[in-house]
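wait is this the right file?? whatever heres the structure
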């Protein structure tokens, strides 16, 4: 059996992350390239929803990378680029949305769910311990152990 199909499949699997990388090459200076990479890693792909714009192969992610690149080359600041993206796509485009009245539930949800889980677990444990103390019908309750005199 030939190993060629396995080799080709492995190649495509390993190289699939490289397809998301920009084909235009690096920006003119290292500082601008670092800003570009930081921004594209802070923006969420609205199609994939679990990937950054930098990691996604979606057409929209490619458009967002191109828009970010163009704005950087035009001299826009990081805040201006983030403001443009959130104005256009909403807070969901950010991996770390700001705390506001609209996103309060998003930030509080993990703590609230943890609290609800702890309360439910506590009630279950309490019920089981109370149920263990009740004798089964037909059995007598075990007498309390008396202390021994030594």
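ok assuming it is, sequence goes like this
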């Amino acid at each position: 059996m030939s190993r060629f199909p396995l080799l080709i499949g492995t190649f495509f699997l390993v190289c699939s992350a490289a397809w998301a990388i920009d084909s235009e090459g690096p920006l003119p200076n290292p500082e601008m390239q670092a800003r570009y990479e930081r921004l594209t890693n802070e923006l969420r792909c609205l199609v994939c929803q679990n990937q950054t714009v930098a990691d996604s192969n979606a057409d929209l992610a490619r458009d967002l990378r191109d828009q970010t690149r163009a704005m950087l080359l035009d001299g826009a600041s990081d805040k201006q680029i983030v403001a443009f993206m959130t104005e256009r796509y909403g807070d969901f485009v950010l991996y770390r949305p700001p705390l506001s009245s609209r996103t309060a539930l998003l930030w509080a949800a993990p703590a609230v769910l943890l609290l609800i889980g702890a309360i439910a677990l506590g009630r279950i444990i309490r019920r089981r311990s109370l149920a263990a103390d009740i004798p089964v019908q037909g059995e007598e309750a075990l007498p309390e152990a008396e202390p021994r005199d030594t």
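The two ends are 82 Å apart (CA to CA). so i think its the right one actually
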